From TrEMBL:
Keywords: Hydrolase, Signal
Ranges where the Sialate O-acetylesterase domain occurs: 101-207, 411-512
Entry keyword Hydrolase: yes
Pfam annotation, one family: SASA
The protein, known as: 9-O-acetylesterase
UniProt xrefs under SUPFAM superfamilies: Galactose-binding domain-like, SGNH hydrolase
Lineage: Bacteria, Pseudomonadati, Bacteroidota, Chitinophagia, Chitinophagales
Organism name: Niastella yeongjuensis
One GO process term, biological-process aspect: carbohydrate metabolic process
Length: 642
């Protein structure tokens, strides 16, 4: 009987807990509610349960429906706060420190996801002075779902900007928010929902994928029960076997003395310059493990203190040892290598730095044009130059693992769907690198993302502001074709959709890094578009020159532009650069170009009968210098459709 009564009491308690009012994670302490629009507060409770909300001296009620969901409408509110909200049903919840302001969704791939922590060396003063309770972020953790659209997130909370929390803010989003707040003094809430490497199709609904049959077919395949588990298990087994093999065969780990030991005999080691790729120094086509070692002389003034070891970027993985002690490891190629060394690790005189590099596929080594140095306070030791190296083991290339989060519709269902009832000001978007090999498709795929999100949010044509691809990869001596230029054109064409905006950043990329560190100018240029599209500023110059049309006059072509601001200029030089011209033979050559009013005149003695002009048409149009006098660069363009 006692056991039966206990079970009954537990059952009743469970029912009571299930009946309690619950809230989605977005509706929580420190949230920012969108101003000047009708709001929805929603959650879950027992069927038929009455829910009451008390907020800013007013009371609102709603009733839980048959699906256990309730929602309560609030009228449009002016910017302000902080406020508290009481939500009462069978239980009572209190949400504290609420602000009313503007909410922006920050989405796309890694360049939007990239946090302030990754750029902290570039912006130390900004981070130190970042404390501002009016700028907040909700971080949506990376997840995916192919079965159904989710109703809530499994984790996440609103964080106020300060020198500690801001390190996890999206860097682009933070500079965007900071710029807008400084101008309008309105609270800004950022919802960061970005996934590194994600293609546009991952952010589409299943219905929208019907216009892209190949992506719909993939989505339906991943929807099949057990399909993901089978691939995951296969991939994991392949990776486990690969890493186990290189661990067992790595001579640097199983020699008489491990190769990170300062006393190891390196008489037979060779040398190669660092930074650089090892395929240029006798290891062509080698994947596996290569050990690098450098001895340095450290003055007594640099010892007894914490130190910082900067090793640029390394392809693909590295483990670092200083004087035989493990100093840190990073498992993939993109993050900057910044290792903090404790006081006492460095010693006066000879010190050894050893780097064990694992390369999975492609070229292994150290990325050039990055910092390689040891610093203590103001003192620095340059680590570039010859390093000793030895081959630990070779291995066949490791097959690329399946990234489920890149598959069509998975990110939309898991990361976008739960926030659809939450009212927003607009979206800022930085994506396209992962679609750059399919630029023609992107002409329709990217607009489909914008149209789909607007349809699903049911807030009309809210501002959708995006970043055009930065300049990247090596420069070319001659005009030619470019997937990245084609993708930038697809982005440029997307401006035909209402209430969109495009930040041009072909002047602030890095040739050897798909993640350029200058995120401040990206955020500021997006903010200029927001000032125009979201805040109605009719005076702001929000864009650099955009190609409008052309006219052939003899052996010259006259180009017309919009968004010329207070006039066109050739930045940093008297001559315009990166214009190319062609005749009917479609063979482009570098051209002369000069500014006349708000037009640009282009010609070449090699092309007496010109037909078409291209500007900055390359993966990396470094040196392209057509700007308006407000300092905003012109978008790359072409007049042809070849």
């Amino acid at each position: 009987m006692y056991r039966l009564l206990s079970l009954c009491m537990l059952s009743l308690l469970s029912i009571a807990v299930l009946a309690q009012v619950k809230l989605p994670r977005l509706i929580s302490d420190n949230m920012v509610l969108q101003r000047d629009t009708k709001l929805t507060i929603w959650g879950w409770a027992a069927v038929g349960e009455k829910v009451t909300i008390h907020f800013i001296d007013k009371t609102y009620t709603g009733t839980t429906g048959a699906d256990s969901t309730w929602s309560v409408s609030l009228p449009a509110l002016k910017a302000g706060g902080p406020y508290e909200m009481e939500i009462t049903g069978s239980n009572q919840l209190v949400i504290k420190n609420i602000l009313v302001g503007d909410v922006w969704v920050c989405s796309g791939q890694s360049n939007m996801e990239l946090p302030m922590e990754r750029v902290k060396e570039k912006y130390p003063a900004v981070i130190a002075n970042s404390a501002n309770p009016a700028i907040r972020q909700f971080n949506v953790a990376t997840t995916y779902d192919f079965q159904k659209a989710r109703k809530d997130y499994e984790s996440g909370s609103w964080q106020l900007a300060n020198p500690q929390t801001v390190l996890q803010f999206t860097a682009v989003g933070y500079f965007f928010a900071k710029t807008l707040y400084e101008k309008y003094q309105v609270p800004i809430g950022l919802i960061k929902a970005s996934v590194g490497g994600s293609p546009a199709e991952a952010w589409l609904t299943e219905g929208a994928l019907k216009a892209f049959p190949q992506h719909l077919e993939t989505a339906l395949l991943y929807k099949q029960p057990g399909f993901i588990d089978s691939i995951r298990n296969r991939d994991q087994q392949i990776r486990n076997n690969w890493y186990q093999t290189i661990w067992q065969q790595d001579k640097g780990l199983h020699d008489t003395s491990p190769w990170y030991d300062p006393g190891v005999n390196t008489a037979n080691w060779k040398t190669m310059p660092v930074p650089g790729f090892w395929d240029e120094h006798g290891l062509k086509g080698v994947n596996g493990v290569v050990w690098f070692r450098k001895e340095i002389e450290v003055p007594a003034s640099m010892t007894g203190k914490p130190a910082k070891l900067l090793l640029g970027r390394i392809v693909d993985q590295d483990s670092v040892f200083v004087n035989g002690r493990f100093a840190g490891t990073i498992g993939y190629q993109y993050p900057p290598r910044r290792y903090e060394l404790p006081a006492g690790l460095l010693q006066p005189g000879k010190n050894t730095i050893v780097v064990r590099v694992i390369n999975n596929a492609g070229r292994g080594g150290f990325i050039t044009d990055k910092p390689y140095k040891l610093t203590v306070g103001e003192e620095t030791i340059d680590l570039k130059g010859d390093w000793q190296f030895a081959l630990g083991t070779t291995a066949p290339p490791l097959p690329l693992a399946t990234f489920f989060q890149y598959m069509p519709t998975g990110l939309y269902k898991a990361m976008v769907s739960p926030m659809l009832p939450y009212r927003i000001k607009g979206v800022i978007w930085y994506q396209g690198e992962s679609n750059a090999g399919r630029a023609v498709e992107y002409r329709t795929l990217f607009p489909a993302v914008i149209n789909t999100w607007r349809k699903q949010w049911q807030e009309g044509n809210f501002p959708f502001l995006f970043v055009q691809l930065a300049n990247y990869m090596e420069t070319k001596d001659q005009p030619g074709e470019s997937d990245w230029a084609m993708t930038r054109e697809a982005q440029l064409k997307t401006l035909s959709l209402p209430n969109t905006g495009m930040a041009v950043i072909t002047d602030i990329g890095e040739w050897n890094d798909i993640h350029p560190l200058n995120k401040e100018d990206v955020g500021k240029r997006l903010a200029l578009w927001a000032e125009k599209q979201a805040y109605g500023d009719q005076q702001v110059v929000y864009s650099g020159p955009l190609y409008k049309g052309m006219k052939v006059q003899g052996n010259k072509i006259t180009l017309q532009f919009t968004s010329t601001g207070s006039g066109l200029m050739a930045k940093g030089d008297k001559e315009l650069k990166y214009f190319a011209i062609a005749g009917a033979d479609k063979k482009f050559v570098w051209a002369n170009a000069t500014i006349e009013g708000n037009n640009v005149i282009v010609w070449s003695d090699q092309v007496p009968q010109p037909v078409a002009v291209r500007y900055a048409w390359a993966d990396n149009p470094a040196g392209a210098n057509l700007y308006n006098k407000e300092g905003l660069p012109a978008s790359p363009f072409r007049t042809d459709n070849w």
